[in-house]
Design brief:
Blueprint: E1 11-17, H1 24-36, E2 42-48, H2 55-65, E3 69-74, H3 80-90, E4 95-98, H4 110-120, E5 124-131, H5 137-153, E6 162-169, H6 170-177, H7 186-193, E7 197-203, H8 216-230, H9 233-261, H10 269-302, E8 308-312, E9 337-338
Parallel strand pairs: 1-2, 1-4, 2-3, 5-7
Antiparallel strand pairs: 3-8, 4-6, 5-6, 8-9
C-alpha cells in the first residue's frame, strides 16, 4: 500500500452531523487538541445533514477560528450513511478517518490509528468497542444480536463491535467510491474490500451532549438494509418456509384421510382455521421478503443521487459557479454536487 497525498493533506476527519449544536463546543475542543498534536497537515470535513437546529450556523462561526474546519452542507436530511458518503467523497487526505459527533467514540484514538496504518502499511484500521458498559442493556443486547446475525449471513470478515469509527487509506476510499451500491452500509462494505486491516480497541463513552440520533426505528432499518444488501439468505428462508409449509400440509392431508378411512371424521373447523392462518402467515412473510429485494432493485434502477451538496467551504469560489448553458466546457464543475457519478461512471458507494 502506497499512500497518495491529495493537496498535501495527510489526514481528513469526516464527521456526519444532524442537529448536534449542543455537542459542537465539546467536540471541537477535544478534536482540535488531538489533531493539532499530530503534527500532520489535516482537514476536518463536517457534513451538515440538513440540520434543523443551529448546527450550520455554529459550524460557520467555528470555521472562522479554525482554518482546518471544512463545512459541507447537504440540501436535505439524507441519512447518516449518505452524509458519511458525502464526506468520504469530499475528503482530500491521504488517510481518512470517520467519527460520529457524539464523542462516544474517542477522537484521541485517531493518532493511534494513523500510526498503526503507517507502521504496518494498512489500508483499514477499525475502532473496536471493547467495553460498552455505558450503553443501556437493551442497546448492548440488540447490538450483539446484530453483529451475531451479520457475521453468520455475510461472513466472519465483518469485525464484531466495529461501527463507523475507522481510518481508511486513500486507496480504500477510492475503491469505495467505485462501488455501485445505492444504499451504503460501510460497516459491511469496508470489510468486503478485503484490504489489509488492523484494529484499535477503546471503551465506548456516554454521549457528550444532546440526544441520540439513532433510535430503535433507525437501528432496525439499518439491520434490514444490512441483511438485504449483502445476503440472499432471507430469500432462501422464504423458500424453506414454503418447503416446511408444504410438508406440514401434506402431513395434515394424510391425517385427514386416515381419520376419514377410520370413520373418525368430525367437524374440524379449528384445524382448518389453524392451517389457513399458518399458510397465510408464511405467504405474507415470503411476499414481504420478496418486496424488500424488489424495492431495492427499484431504487437501484432509478439511480437517484443519495445526497445533494448545497455548499462546501473547501471549494474555490469559481468552482461553485453553475454552467451557463448545456454547451459549457466539460471541465466546469456544477453548483450542486451529488451522489450520482458522471456519465460512464459507476454509481456512488
Amino acid at each position: 500500500m502506497t499512500a497518495v497525498h491529495h493537496d498535501r493533506t495527510e489526514l481528513s476527519v469526516v464527521i456526519p452531523m444532524y442537529n448536534e449544536e449542543e455537542v459542537l463546543p465539546v467536540l471541537v475542543d477535544r478534536l482540535r487538541a488531538v489533531l493539532d498534536g499530530t503534527g500532520v497537515r489535516y482537514e476536518v470535513v463536517a457534513v451538515d445533514d440538513g440540520s434543523t437546529d443551529k448546527t450550520a450556523a455554529r459550524l460557520e462561526d467555528l470555521r472562522a477560528g479554525w482554518p482546518q474546519l471544512r463545512v459541507v452542507a447537504l440540501r436535505r436530511n439524507s441519512g447518516h450513511q449518505a452524509a458519511l458518503t458525502a464526506g468520504l467523497h469530499s475528503a482530500r487526505g491521504a488517510y481518512v478517518a470517520s467519527i460520529d459527533a457524539d464523542l462516544q467514540d474517542p477522537p484521541e484514538k485517531i493518532p493511534e490509528m494513523l500510526a498503526l496504518a503507517k507502521a504496518q502499511r494498512l489500508d483499514i484500521v477499525y475502532g473496536i468497542r471493547s467495553d460498552r458498559s455505558t450503553d443501556t442493556g437493551f442497546k448492548r443486547r440488540t447490538a450483539g444480536a446484530y453483529y451475531w446475525l451479520i457475521r453468520r449471513l455475510v461472513g466472519k470478515n465483518v469485525p464484531s463491535q466495529a461501527g463507523d469509527f475507522r481510518l481508511l487509506s486513500r486507496e480504500a476510499v477510492d475503491a469505495l467510491k467505485t462501488l455501485p451500491d445505492q444504499q451504503q452500509v460501510y460497516r459491511l462494505l469496508v470489510p468486503w474490500l478485503g484490504f489489509p486491516s488492523g484494529q484499535v480497541t477503546y471503551q465506548r463513552d456516554e454521549r457528550a451532549a444532546g440526544e441520540t440520533k439513532y433510535p430503535l426505528r433507525k437501528m432496525v432499518g439499518l439491520a434490514i438494509t444490512s441483511i438485504t444488501s449483502f445476503s440472499a439468505a432471507p430469500l432462501r428462508l422464504a423458500t424453506w418456509l414454503g418447503v416446511v409449509s408444504f410438508f406440514t400440509c401434506l402431513a395434515m392431508l394424510v391425517f385427514t384421510l386416515t381419520a376419514y378411512a377410520l370413520g373418525n371424521t368430525v367437524p374440524g373447523w379449528t384445524s382448518l382455521f389453524t392451517a389457513m392462518l399458518f399458510l397465510g402467515g408464511v405467504q405474507l412473510i415470503c411476499f414481504g421478503l420478496l418486496g424488500e429485494y424488489v424495492g431495492r432493485i427499484y431504487t437501484a434502477v432509478q439511480q437517484r443521487p443519495t445526497y445533494f451538496i448545497a455548499s462546501d467551504s473547501g471549494r474555490p469560489a469559481e468552482a461553485a459557479a453553475p454552467a451557463a448553458t448545456p454547451a459549457a466546457p466539460a471541465a466546469a464543475e456544477p453548483l450542486v454536487s451529488s451522489g450520482r457519478p458522471e456519465a460512464g461512471q459507476l454509481p456512488p458507494a
